[in-house]
Amino acid sequence: MAKIKLLALDLDGTLFNQKKEISLENKAALKAARAKDVKVVLTTGRPIKAMEYLLKELDLISDDNYIITFNGGLVQKTNGDILDKSELSYQQVENIQAEMEKLALPVDILSDGIVYSISNQDHHSRYHLANPTLSFKKIAGLDHLPRDIIYNKVVIVYEAAFLDQQILKIPAYFYDRFEVFKSRDIILEIMPKGVHKAVGLDLLVKHLGIDASEVMAMGDEENDLTMLRWAGLGVAMANGTAAAKQAADAVTARTNEQSGVAEAIEKYILKEDKNGII
């Protein structure tokens, strides 16, 4: 196995525990990995504005550190310099809202750190509960959505049983136009077609001059599948979905509540011999 030069980390269900905190053991492991010149890249669906506190906490803000946000839709340095970005058009947002309205699913449209929330058939978004660090603006409909902004992605955040029931009713054509996947049991994400975590990572490693074989990616959910398959070493969490475990090369013995990230770093990065072979 190639020596790991970059560690791509999902947050919820992976690096975070249920309280959305990073354990001391995980922090120590990340510090040790960085001491071996391994780049730590947070790879998330969140916008960078919701990540600033975390980047500071992990001492990752510089012109030599990187972050992938919006599930691969934005690749940038942690100082804010953008390498690559993708976005939805207003017409695509219209299409998404029209379909979600039929399904009585509320819609949240993300533009950087601002979320524009639209209720559908008296069903209201729960995104503010899932990610309270963002700024939320309730709007009556798309007529009230600004046209001069970036539309990074659309999310639907609602009670899991109803959400899963309605997902089955999404028309087939919709999957041809967009990337559609769950990132948590209550969150459905809709991205521009062809944009996902593996795409963002591929752009980044080309910029850095390293190979996918030198990347270890860790995740637990549906939106992590592409990077788990793409990376030289994909590691799913013990608490991950069946699909994540199937896509990965390895599965941790410990969950996110038990610092499973630290376990994988110790096993695959810190215990290499001089030839880089585990």
Automatic annotation (TrEMBL):
One GO CC term on file: cytosol
One Pfam family hit: Hydrolase_3
The organism's place on the tree of life at top rank: Bacteria
Alphabetized GO MF terms: magnesium ion binding; phosphatase activity
CDD domains assigned: HAD_Pase
PANTHER family: HAD SUPERFAMILY HYDROLASE-LIKE, TYPE 3 (PTHR10000:SF8), PHOSPHOSERINE PHOSPHATASE (PTHR10000)
Protein name: Cof-like hydrolase
